[in-house]
Amino acid sequence: MKKFIIFVTLMLILSACSTSAQIQPTNPNPAVLVKTSTPLPTATDSPTPTATATLTATPTTRPAKVLAPIITVTVGPTQSTAGGLIWPRAKFTEANVTWRTTACAEPGKNLSCEMEYRKDAAGCYVGASCYDDCGWYYSVNTIPAGVEEFSAPCF
User: Fold this and answer.
1) DSSP helix/strand/coil, 99
2) Tell me: the pLDDT tens digits for 3-30?
3) 125 near 117, Cβ under 8 Å?
4) pTM of this prediction?
5) How far apart are CA 42 and CA 32, in angstroms?
6) Torsion angle of alpha carbons 75, 80, 82, 87, nearest 10°?
7) Are strands 85-86 and 81-82 parallel, antiparallel or unpaired?
């Protein structure tokens, strides 16, 4: 047994002293990138108009303190606007509105909104998220948990 341990130790010492073999790559040819004809997105100068409700109002720099129920009476090619902002066609109050808290050089520039209406036996609800050049700007949310049925604009 002593001879075996000496033999193994001697083999380990000899293998450590030998020169290392160069490792060759498995694929010596570099990968070639092939240009594809994937189209790139294009800039759109103006959004496609859709038939939505329009509120006639005098633009201001800030919305009114009380936004209690805004009812849109005119239907046209743009969305409801008040104070230079876009509002959903629904009843809501200032408590339903959440504003961005970070600074923006030009708030409200290129403003756009996504709106969603839902309903249940108790009534009709709205959720809206609005974005400008700085990102998310404000939201309106009156949808209670559990209301899943979608609806047309309602107020």
Assistant:
1) strand
2) 888 887 877 776 666 666 676 666 656 6
3) yes
4) 0.47
5) 28
6) 150
7) antiparallel
